[in-house]
Write a structure and sequence with these properties.
The chain is an alpha/beta fold. The chain has two domains: 171 residues, Response regulator (Rossmann fold); 170 residues, Response regulator (Rossmann fold, 3-Layer(aba) Sandwich), CATH 3.40.50. The chain has a six-stranded parallel β-sheet with strand order 2-1-3-4-5-11, sandwiched between helices. β3, α3 and β4 form a beta-alpha-beta unit. The N terminus is likely disordered. This is Sugar ABC transporter substrate-binding protein. It comes from Sanguibacter biliveldensis. GO terms for molecular function: carbohydrate binding.
């Protein structure tokens, strides 16, 4: 690995990141077990403020770094690639000591990363792998293929083909299901879809699950920028072209993200499929445990979501940053899975959980991620 600025700080810095707790998604305790705090400036580039998840991530990373003694330059790219490129350029020109980047387009930052490398600025990719560059030093994320497995598993549970404990359910099918994926410029979308299809393909092959539209490739089912409106429009088009405008049976929809899920649900409700699962709404999955979707799950409207505790992700980013600025190698628990097209990026993977109606309190409220009042209101 190339030389790291502040390597000489290793004898001075000592930092222990405190476990997170707090009020709502992404909140941090703001406490550190450090004997001495770090010094330096860290640039944090987040993709958007249109998703509550990314606002929470940005706040959690910033507060964790500040608790460790670092100065933070946090910027949101507003889903605009040139804006994020310019923000990162400005951080490099300000001579930040390290960059943490959640990219809008994982293929669009090669120039910025080369400039960072030329300035000996380490780069940590945050939850979205940055592709086609040798200048990505570390990656913190969740086990994204397993997230896809969990999404597909929850769909099978919703259809009655599996029980929550993984045992075989009583339902036999066949069930009509449609598939949605995330944005093709986000490397995670590929991992989610791969895990989901690995799980669903045997059921498709035996005819228990039927994708009536025939759209089963990621290119056919992708949702650019993960946008709710784009997903709603595609669902509306599928209902018109394949399901008689809502008069024919649709049993489930694989959705990779809660915003997409809400767009799908809106299209289904508008087409007359019912307002809840109990009165005929198809089973719809999700991801990120956004509070609006958690309420929908509590109300029996959305079936499931995947809880990725982004407080832990923020903690891990802070831990990795601190290691770099001590001149050390961050701890990786995966050195094989994440090939960005140029190199395999050392990674730290975190685990996720499936959220159903009956475990919202256990997973989300008891952990302090959301409060009971927030779940009831659907607002953070």
């Amino acid at each position: 690995m190339r030389g790291i600025k502040f390597a000489a700080m290793g004898a001075v810095l000592a930092f222990g990141l405190a476990a997170c707790s707090g009020d709502g998604a992404g909140s941090s305790s703001g406490e550190s077990g450090a004997a001495e705090e770090g010094t330096g400036v860290i640039g944090v580039a987040m993709p958007t403020q249109t998703s509550e998840r990314w606002i929470a991530d940005g706040d959690a990373v910033k507060s964790g770094l500040e608790a460790a003694g670092y100065e933070v330059d946090l910027q949101f790219g507003n889903d605009d690639i040139p804006t994020q490129q310019q923000q990162i350029d400005q951080m490099i020109n300000k001579d930040v000591d390290l960059l943490i980047i959640a990219s809008i387009d994982g293929t669009a930052l090669a120039t910025q990363l080369q400039a960072a490398a030329d300035a000996d600025i380490p780069v940590i990719a945050y939850d979205r792998l940055i592709r086609d560059s040798e200048n990505v030093d570390f990656y913190v994320t969740f086990d994204n293929e397993n997230v896809g497995v969990q999404q597909a598993t929850s769909l099978l549970v919703g259809l009655g083909l599996l029980n929550e404990d993984g045992s075989k359910g009583d339902a036999t099918g066949p069930f009509n299901v449609e598939l949605f994926a995330g944005s093709l410029d986000d490397n995670n979308a590929t991992f989610f879809f791969k895990g989901a299809m690995k799980t669903l393909q045997p059921y498709i092959d035996e005819g228990t699950i039927v994708v009536k539209s025939g759209q089963t490739s990621i290119e056919q089912v992708a949702t650019l920028r993960w946008l709710q409106e784009t997903a709603q429009k595609r669902m509306e088009d599928l209902l018109t072209s394949t399901y008689g405008g809502g008069s024919e049976q649709l049993d489930g929809v694989l959705s990779p993200y809660d915003g997409i899920s809400r767009g799908i649900i809106t299209a289904l409700q508008n087409a007359g499929y019912g307002t809840t699962i109990a009165d005929g709404l198809p089973v719809v999955t999700g991801q990120d445990a956004e509070i609006a979707s958690v309420k929908l799950i509590a109300d029996g409207t959305q079936f499931s979501t995947i809880f990725k505790d982004t407080r832990k992700l923020a903690d891990q980013a802070v831990t990795a940053a601190d290691s770099f600025l001590k001149g050390e190698e961050p701890e990786a628990n995966d050195t094989e899975s994440y090939d960005n097209g140029v190199k395999v990026v050392p990674s730290f993977l975190l685990e996720s959980d499936i959220v159903y109606t009956d475990n919202i309190t256990e997973l989300l409220v008891d952990s302090g991620y959301w409060t009971a009042e927030q779940v009831e209101s659907g607002q953070a």
